[in-house]
What we know:
Layout: H1 2-92, H2 94-98, E1 107-112, H3 116-130, E2 139-144, H4 148-155, E3 160-165, H5 180-199, E4 204-209, E5 212-214, H6 218-231, E6 235-239, E7 256-259, E8 267-270, H7 271-277, H8 286-290, H9 293-296, E9 300-304, E10 309-311, H10 323-327, H11 349-361, E11 364-366, H12 371-376, E12 382-385, H13 389-399, E13 405-406, E14 409-410, E15 418-422, E16 426-431, H14 435-439
Parallel strand pairs: 1-2, 1-4, 2-3, 6-9, 11-12, 12-16
Antiparallel strand pairs: 4-8, 5-10, 6-8, 7-9, 13-14, 15-16
Helix pairs in contact: 3-4
Amino acid sequence: MAKFFCDFRFLLLIAAGAFIYIQMRLFATQSEYSDRLAVAVESENHCTNQLRLLIDQISMQQERIVSLEDERNRREQECGQLKALVQDLERKGVQRLIDKVQAPVAAVVVMACNRADYLERTIKSILKYQTSVASKYPLFVSQDGPDPNVKRKALSYDQVSYMQHLDYERVETERPGELIAYYKIARHYKWALDELFYKHNFSRVIILEDDMEIAPDFFSYFEAAADLLDKDRSIMAVSSWNDNGQKQFVHDPYALYRSDFFPGLGWMLARNTWDELSPKWPKAYWDDWLRLKENHKGRQFIRPEVCRTYNFGEHGSSMGQFFKQYLEPIKLNDVLVDWKSRDLSYLMEENYVKYFADIVKKAKPLHGRDLVLKASNIGGDVCVKYEDQRDFERIASEFGIFEEWKDGVPRTAYKGVVVFRYQKSRRIFLVGPNSLEQLGIEDS
């Protein structure tokens, strides 16, 4: 019995050993399988990541291909337009005009977009006076966009050289609700001026818009003003426009002024100034940008008392803003002034302060309320002081002139002084709180 029990324990021991061995083998097999499974999962993840990366690369390449296709289409269109422009320039002999011994005074460019009827009226007005001085003032039309009627109209004139600005870049406005048109206009202006100054190598450019008519002495005025622009670097540009040029506020077709406020609407710019402005040209609202002190840097603008341009564009990007009140009543000069025979040296910076101060000093001071009534009962020029912008706006409203300021400067102002005619020939001077001091006039 004892021997049987001993044999049984021996068998149990063998069975236990076999069981332990089997368990160890199973554990080793499971561990090996787990390792292989982990490697397989890792390999699968790697393949998945590689596949995703490949898909992303393919997607990027597809986007790049689409972008390149778009770029190619744009380039083809631009090349076609440039080819047409070169042919047009060759046909009209602009290059021969530029190469003449006497260089042009300035290129004249009409900025157009999609108003063929307006453009026709503008071109006819220009050609009425430009034909006799065409060699001095080569005429261009720069169209923004593809409007076929505008292009056809511009190309129908042999005297006109045509340029076309095709801009497919998406416009991102800086503030909600802004009109995209103002951004497109700014891009067009930069492109056109770069073309005329750098590609065609003009030293000066006169910028008009496609809703303007010009005065008989328009070209004589700018030829005389070009000398001022060359001699006096404190003059940033020369304008043919007076914001307060309505019929009831002007009288003397020979009167010119310096102004700290950029008038625009028919203006001449020199290349050296464009060299400064072009690299930092704004995305939109280029005219108000030029009125900022940080951009005009204390330089001033020449303007006439009686406008040499008339803006008839009631419908356009500005939606006819102020047209009835301020633009429609503008007086377009009808006197043929021979500007080259006139001495304009009084407009030079070193002479003008004294010249203008002498005029202001002779004006009779006027105070209090009911200024229009009081001015009506006083003979001769009148001087009215204003304390601040709000006070100026009140006085300007009484007389009916522009109330607007930009960057601390009223429209048309010179050293804070706004001058306009009243009851035909008499002048009203609205004088700022620091104006007399800047003019060197003792405040009485």
